């Protein structure tokens, strides 16, 4: 488990839009079934508190999680640990798709 993820979990590391934060946020996409629950828990808290520049990149992690784990993603809605943030997860995923679609439209117009 990533040191900074552990430190964040223990309240000893503040998230920012930097490589240390990004290094463990992408761990939510891990295929390791032993560490994945921990990273999901930590990531979910990051979803809850993300704002500003960090919020702008959260979709780049939420969308692939949704695409790789659609059933687990849907389970977030009914899981007491994650349901409070479910709408925020959805918003991050939706924004990511929105930006990709509009980016493609701009490329077509050029």
State Rg: 14 Å
Tell me the overall shape. Answer: globular
Overall mean confidence score, pLDDT = 91
Low-confidence stretches: none
Following the backbone from N to C, one meets helices and strands in this order, namely HHHHHH
Find the structural class using helix and strand composition.
mainly alpha
> Into which percentage range does the β-strand content fall?
under 5%
Number of helices: 6
Distance between the termini: 45 Å
Question: What is the count of β-strands?
Answer: 0
Oligomer: single chain
Approximate helicity band: 55-70%
Characterization of this structure:
- With 110 residues, the chain is mainly alpha-helical.
- It is 68% helix and 0% strand.
- It contains 6 helices and no strands.
- It has helices at 3-9, 19-25, 36-49, 52-68, 70-75, 86-109.
- Helix 4 (52-68) packs across helix 6 (86-109).
Task: Provide keyphrases for this structure.
110 residues; mainly alpha; 6 helices; 68% helix; 0% strand; globular
Please give a quick description of this structure.
Helix content is 68%, strand content 0%. The protein contains 6 helices and no strands. The longest helix has 24 residues, at 86-109.
How are the SSEs ordered, and which strands pair?
Blueprint: H1 3-9, H2 19-25, H3 36-49, H4 52-68, H5 70-75, H6 86-109
Helix pairs in contact: 4-6
